[in-house]
Write a structure and sequence with these properties.
Elements: H1 7-13, H2 24-29, E1 38-43, E2 50-56, H3 61-76, E3 77-82, E4 85-90, H4 94-107, E5 116-120, E6 125-128, H5 139-144, H6 153-161, H7 171-178
Parallel strand pairs: 1-5
Antiparallel strand pairs: 1-2, 3-4, 5-6
């Protein structure tokens, strides 16, 4: 546990440029920044029915992550009481969603002035992150979870230290695993 954030800690995390100024990774983790964020919309029976919408931008990507995760809890989980037992029922696997949101944040191209778009439907969630696959990584390699190319290694390191990701190139495989027993993939 970190009790005090010193310059040494910030340097260890890689938050400074060679000129000893804060870099973009530090800005992305700051409480306030000028970067785009996540635009989340929940649709009804069609894309013409917007039931809820929240844009989280200009703030820490950790706050963006938490806000995006709270949406799945609000719309894709409910409590079911059976006899004396109460359990949480997940319509969409939370583990898969958390992994996908973390990946969208740490692998996106932050030089693009666009939001990560999260579209919530009754039967699925679509997450679109600005940018393309990193150079040298094919769609097949990405889908098979064979290789990991961190576009933003400083952000990846922070998410790893917070235990949000494994940083081992297994994210897509874990998402597929979370859906293994789901009715809808």
């Amino acid at each position: 546990e970190l009790s005090m954030v010193s310059e040494d800690v910030l340097r260890t995390l890689g938050f400074f440029t060679k000129e000893k100024k804060y870099n973009n990774a530090a800005s992305l983790l700051a409480d306030k920044n000028d970067f785009y964020g996540i635009d989340i919309a929940r649709f009804g029976n069609s894309i013409n029915e917007i039931m809820d919408r929240e844009t989280i931008a200009g703030t820490s990507i950790l706050k963006q992550y938490d806000a995006a995760v709270s949406m799945i809890k609000r719309y894709y989980q409910y409590e079911e009481i059976s006899g004396i037992e109460r359990k949480i029922v997940e319509l969409i696997p939370e583990n898969a969603y958390r992994e996908a949101i973390a990946n969208a944040l740490i692998h996106r191209d932050w030089s693009m002035n666009a939001h990560i778009r999260v579209a919530l439907y009754s039967d699925r969630i679509e997450i679109k992150s600005p940018g393309s696959l990193p150079k040298g990584l094919t769609a097949e390699e990405y889908e098979n979870g064979e290789i990991s190319c961190l576009r933003n290694p400083i952000l990846g390191n922070v998410f790893f230290r917070l235990k949000y990701i494994e940083m081992f190139g297994t994210g897509v495989t874990r998402i597929k695993y979370a859906y293994a027993n789901a009715k809808i993939k």
